[in-house]
Amino acid sequence: MKIYNTLTRKKEEFTPIEKGRVSMYVCGPTVYNLIHIGNARPMIVFDAFRRFLEYKGYEVNFVSNFTDVDDKIIKKAIEEGTDAQTIAKRYTEECKKDMADMNVRPATVHPLATQEIEGMIEMIQTLIDKGYAYQAADGTVYYRTKKFADYGKLSHKNLDELQAGHREIQVTGDLKEDPFDFVLWKPKKEGEPAWESPWCEGRPGWHIECSVMSKKYLGETIDIHAGGEDLIFPHHENEIAQSEAASGKPFAHYWMHNGFLNIDNQKMSKSLNNFFTVRDIAQKYDLQVLRFFMLSAHYRSPLNFSAELMDAAKNGLERIVTAASNVKRLSAVAGPGEMNETERELFEKTREYQDKFDAAMEDDCNTADAVSAIFELVKFINTNACADNTSIYLKNLYARLAVLCDVLGILIEKKEELLDEDIKRLIEERQTARKEKNFARADQIRDELEQKGILLKDTRQGVVWQRI
Asked: What is the pTM of this model?
């Protein structure tokens, strides 16, 4: 299995620290509002990669945090006239709901920053003791960026280049030794949540939170650290500086970053009125469609979101679900007995699609090619499954499709649709009319059902329907 490592800028053979086990940390959201579809991309793609690792037999310790203390949370609390804890708790629960609706599995641990303050204070003190951090006159603790010789190794920029291109991270002031020094601990402001520390009553900086939570739940050196490419600098760069200065050990062996998500070829922005939360999308699409859309592109590629592409994803997902539904329905009425020779040969051919799927996922989590392999399997099933087959053969076809879809978190069980008695009666009446060769009446019923939002399809396996 190969992973593209942002640290080395090349694909590398994946070798875990401990055979058969993988430690993986994915930066989670700051919980001050409903998550947007940009947040959803890393949740979905790294959930799929985690599922694949487990499918290959690894035991995965998957940690993804919730940042529940932050300027944005405090600002939201002030706007609503409440406290930061109330805001963070509310949107943590809302985030978990959206994740479940996208079929994102809960992490092994979802640590909260506010519950790990003691560990943050300990790491900051270690950095001070080693000379990598210092306390300013107002109690703020800063990290000495230039003291860490490898600073910039993840973003592949040295400090001179960063000075020219990232002026926004340079904060001047008499309290800092250098404009590039970043905050580890900040003093309390009126109305803000705060904790006691050796330096002042205050709260941690953002970067120290992930370093501490990763260390506590995964160890000083982990296999994989992942997140959106917007986190490479400065967040992940600062995590490396903190963690490696404190421990003297490599922080993460592999760094994975997903590409940006654009909306109609533009950056998502509230000012452009193209900002969509996951809940916004859920009003128009089943969130399985959003998941399928995200997985239809390679995770490192920029991804363009549009209504047309979402509709295409919806149609593609429907092809898979319909094939699964058809073969499952056939297996329920097919004859008993063992597979015959022809069926055994046909089923053996489906191994080719599973092998293609595995090869795609082993090549830097290429979900786009993995989805293509699933479509090839769907085409094979549609061509080589009928009412004359044995039940065991049909069940085996369904199981193979189900296994691959489950690795990607794609649900293939059709949600139960309920028809009222009038519509059921009309479908039965149409079937009778067709048997009696009263095609005019059959067509009339089809049109009537279409007006009621029910589309009928006549297939080799019988009549199937779907809502329009």
From this structure: 0.87
